[in-house]
Amino acid sequence: MPRILENFIARKTEETHKCIFLLSYSALIKKQKMKLQITLLFVLLNAISGIAQKADDLIGKYRLPNKLDVEIFKENGKYFGKIIALRNFDDGQTTDVNNPEERKQDTPLIGLQIINNLEYDSKENKWIHGEMYGPEKGIVFHLKVIEIHEDEIVVVGSKYFFWKTLVWKKIS
């Protein structure tokens, strides 16, 4: 075989190998991109579900410093709370005697919804815009939950320029 023909075949063979390599490399890159996209999708979905789970970590039963036991629940994307036990609350008070509306003063405290409209703020990782009714004084104040721990939550109640930070113990 003439030398020119051998050189031509060698060059074409080398070019063919380069093309096959580039095609294989291109397919590998596409495969890696697809794996990365799938991984990112799973990470994003996990983060979203983690946010929802974090928001719902508030749901449960708590003992307040004033000896009320409350159950926090979720309804229509917001969080609410009702009294489930009194534990000798306010020297034995069992009805809403301090309510400013006289017609409600005979309302039993057990089952009374005292926490309303808490919303989870995922950026701040806090529950905000809530209201809480304090049956010991018959007043409504603003409520936010600023921390959740395994056995307690930290809340801030405020009225006008006054605020107070309290710890509610988780109960079973």
Molecular structure report:
- The N and C termini lie far apart (about 90 Å).
- The longest helix has about 55 residues.
- This protein is an alpha+beta fold and about 170 residues long.
- Strand 4 and strand 5 form a beta hairpin.
- It has two domains: about 55 residues; about 120 residues, Beta Barrel (Lipocalin), CATH 2.40.128.
- It has one helix and eight strands; from the N terminus they run H-E-E-E-E-E-E-E-E.
- About 30% of the residues lie in helices and about 40% in strands.
- An eight-stranded antiparallel beta barrel has the order 1-2-3-4-5-6-7-8.
- It is rod-shaped, with a radius of gyration of 32 Å.
- The mean pLDDT is about 85.
Question: Which key terms come to mind for this protein?
Answer:
rod-shaped; 31% helix; 2 domains; 1 helix; eight-stranded antiparallel beta barrel; single chain; 172 residues; Lipocalin; alpha+beta
